[in-house]
Amino acid sequence: MSVTLDGDKSGSVPNRTERSSGGSGERPRPNGLPQRARRLLRGPRPESVPALVGTACAVIGLIDIAAGVFPRFRHSRMHDLAEVLPGALGPYAAALALSTGVLLLLLAHGLKRRKRRAWRAAVILLPAGAVAQFAYRHSVSGVVLSLALLALLLWHRREFAALPDPRSRWKALANFVLMGAGSIGLGLLIVSVHPHRTVGNPSLSERLEHVLFGLFGFSGPIDYSGIVSGTVGDSLGALGLLTALTTIYLAFRPEHPVARLTEDDERQLRALLARHGGRDSLGHFALRRDKGVVFSPSGKAAVCYRVVSGVMLASGDPIGDVEAWPGAIERFMDEAKAHSWTPAVMGCSETGGEVWTRETGLSVLELGDEAVVDVPDFSLQGRAMRNVRQMVKRIERAGYETRVRRVRDLSDGELGRVRRAADDWRGTDTERGFSMALGRIGDPSDGDSVIATAHKPGDGDTGPYGDLKAVLHFVPWGTDGMSLDLMRRDRSADPGMNELLIVASLHAAPALDVVRVSLNFAMFRSALARGERLGAGPVLRCWRGLLVFLSRWFQIESLYKFNAKFQPRWEPRYVVFRSPGELPRIGFAAMQAEGFVTLALPRALRRLGRASRSRPGERPTGPPSDHEVRTT
User: Fold this and answer.
1) For 301, left (φ over 0), alpha (ψ -120 to 50), or beta?
2) In sequence order, what are the residues at sequence separation of 6 or more whose Cβ sits closer than 8 angstroms to the Cβ of residue 262?
3) CA dihedral sign of residues 423, 427, 432, 437
4) Helix, strand or coil, per DSSP, at residue 318
5) What angle do CA 323, 327, 329 make, to 5 degrees?
6) What mean pLDDT comes out for the span 214-241?
7) In terms of C-beta density within 10 A (0-12 exposed, 13-18 middle, 19 or more buried), how is residue 304 classed?
8) What are the phi and psi torsion angles at 212 (to 5°)?
9) pLDDT computed for residue 461 by the predictor
């Protein structure tokens, strides 16, 4: 078939040079417009509008704040005349610009995340900011920028459809503290930018007092000449009113609680684990009751997750039939898209990583290795096990005994002592664990779990836990395995309690019909191992040095060396993510989920909240330091 262009009647097909637009991109198209002009007329791509609008709102918010704070920021000669005209806004416009700017800054992040409520608020605030800009500064450019952004928001309104995040009324208290601190800081700036209109030379304490009075709508100890007094007073009052209104709104808006496992969800997950739980050692940790879950359409697979700082964080592989994994993964991605959450997976296996990347197009990165001991191959004999063998024999000679039993075989009184000891021996206020921690001990529904305890007869009257000195808790891994959940010990006991109990558990495993035991997860294990070998390159040595340095605060090298004592086989684990730019955010969310970074209320308030939400029989736990963590 022939093609004709620009009136060419020859019927010949144009060559490649004639069809292309050239390297400059300026060759005219059939409609007479160059390619670059056509792109400008089309505007930004719809998927890039939220990020663009969020950034622009932050910029406009800063401009509005500057217009309300700094008297020299305005450049209009008409300003002095406009302030005395009847009906002029005068100092009220400064307060309006200041309030609008602060709110736009608060909304910028929500707009980038495509939140519908942020869009609605921005549609109201942008015209208000434009009015304040014109009334206070007579700035046409500021008005044009605000209205152009408003038009972009209205044109691409369908891009802002994300549902609200999980939230509670505790955020009202956090907002009051943060907004109050920000208002005080901004207020100090407001009262200090008028040095030539200030009467006298007020001290910092007087300025702070003036700010605090102004936030509550009262006059402070500082006097100004002219109309500056009204401008400062109205601006401070606007900040105080803004803090109060946002706090009241957050306190009384409907709650969107964090997704948690319901009894029906847990029943379905246990049924899937009964059929497919032997495939992944992390499977039983999906039963944490502070996780949400999405099921495949067939109900034969599920993905468990928690939302932390806008990151939808899954852990381990999907639960259930591998053939049904794509359906559960699709539901997971749909949920993340509906709320504009960042999807991520921590600690999945190689098979899980392959399925995630194939079904979603996400990227994968090796995170570390899981130590797995095959019980038939384990022995304390040989030179490699000499240190462990000597330590265990020394502790046994000191009079320590071990007991390894299923949870259902312990009496209620002994379970109570184990729970109290594990809680008191945690060593930190923060409850750690997410991807490789169950968060409870001795629940009636976890009767197949295994508890290993160390005792020293004769010390029964020396403490509230009898002769108990250390505890290990394992969760089931299918029908023939168990996976380490936590390790706790009395700090006054002899060193080596953990080694003693792990060896005792491995020796008792055949009687429990267990042939494989999963121990701790060693983060960046391969880098640590290769970096200390002969001939390691400078880059690898520097990377290992950084990991060793970070081990002062995070258990990286210590967990690797502890696990290596038992001569395990190493199973790699991976993190799945959307883009490299999101890795810092995912890493921060993972550290929050695992309990290494805490952004929380004071301990007394946290305990009050947990007491009101906890289930009967459930007691959250989290491990302390010194090899007593099974998390990433």
Assistant:
1) beta
2) none
3) negative
4) coil
5) 105
6) 82
7) buried
8) -65, -40
9) 56
CB 280 within 8 A of CB 315: no
Query: At a CB cut-off of 8 Å and minimum separation 6, what does 101 contact?
Result: 60, 61, 62, 63, 64, 65, 66, 67, 68, 129
Q: How far apart are CA 464 and CA 485, in angstroms?
A: 24
pLDDT tens digit sequence for 425-435: 876 666 667 78
Q: Residue 459 pLDDT > 70, yes or no?
A: no
Nearest to 574 by CA among 343, 401, 316, 212: 316
Contacts by 507-514 with C-beta closer than 8 Å and gap 24+? 508/404, 508/452, 509/375, 509/482, 510/375, 512/404, 512/406, 512/450, 512/482, 513/479, 513/480, 514/375, 514/450, 514/480, 514/481, 514/482
User: Per mean pLDDT, which range of 1-15, 208-222, 372-386 is the poorest?
Assistant: 1-15
Question: How confident is the model over 306-330, as pLDDT tens digits?
Answer: 988 889 999 889 999 999 999 999 9
Q: Hunting for tokens 């939140």 — which residue is that?
A: 115
Query: Collapsing DSSP states into helix, strand and coil, what is residue 160?
Result: coil
Cα of first residue to Cα of last residue in the chain, in angstroms, is 62
Say which DSSP state 258 is in. P
**Which tens digit of pLDDT belongs to each residue from 496-543?**
899 999 999 999 999 999 999 999 888 888 877 777 777 777 877 887
Give the other-Cβ count within 10 Å of 209's Cβ.
15
Burial of 63 from C-beta contacts in 10 A (0-12 / 13-18 / 19+): buried
Residue burial 485-514, b: 16+ Cβ < 10 Å; e: rest = bbbbbbeebbebbbbbbbbbbbbbbeebeb
Nearest to 632 by CA among 319, 307, 325, 345: 345
- For 18-54, what is each residue's pLDDT tens digit? 434 444 444 444 455 565 555 555 566 777 778 888 8
- Other C-beta atoms lying within 10 Å of the C-beta of residue 297: 11
**Nearest to residue 550, comparing CAs of 572, 527, 576?**
527
3-state secondary structure of 476: strand
Q: What is the pLDDT of residues 262-296, one digit of tens each?
A: 889 999 999 999 999 899 999 999 998 888 899 99
Please report the DSSP string for 7-64 in residue order. T--S-PPP-HHHHS--TTS-SPPTTS--HHHHHHHH-S-GGGHHHHHHHHHHHHHHHH
Evaluate whether 60 touches 104 at the Cβ level (below 8 Å): yes
* Of 216, 257, 221, nearest in space to 240 by CA: 216
Query: pTM here?
Result: 0.71
* Cβ-Cβ contacts under 8 Å for 178 (sequence gap 6 or more): none
Task: Tell me which residue has tokens 């002095």.
Answer: 80
Q: Distance between CA atoms of 247 and 241, rounded to whole angstroms?
A: 10
Neighbours of 347 (CB within 10 A): 28
Q: How many C-beta atoms surround the C-beta of residue 171 within 10 A?
A: 15
> CA-CA distance, 65 to 93, in Å (whole number)?
11
Longest dimension (CA), the chain: 108
**Residues 200 and 194 sit within 8 Å (Cβ to Cβ):** no
Query: Cβ of 83: how many Cβ atoms within 10 Å?
Result: 16
H/E stretch holding 386 reads helix 386-397
Task: Look up tokens 């206020």; give the residue.
Answer: 429
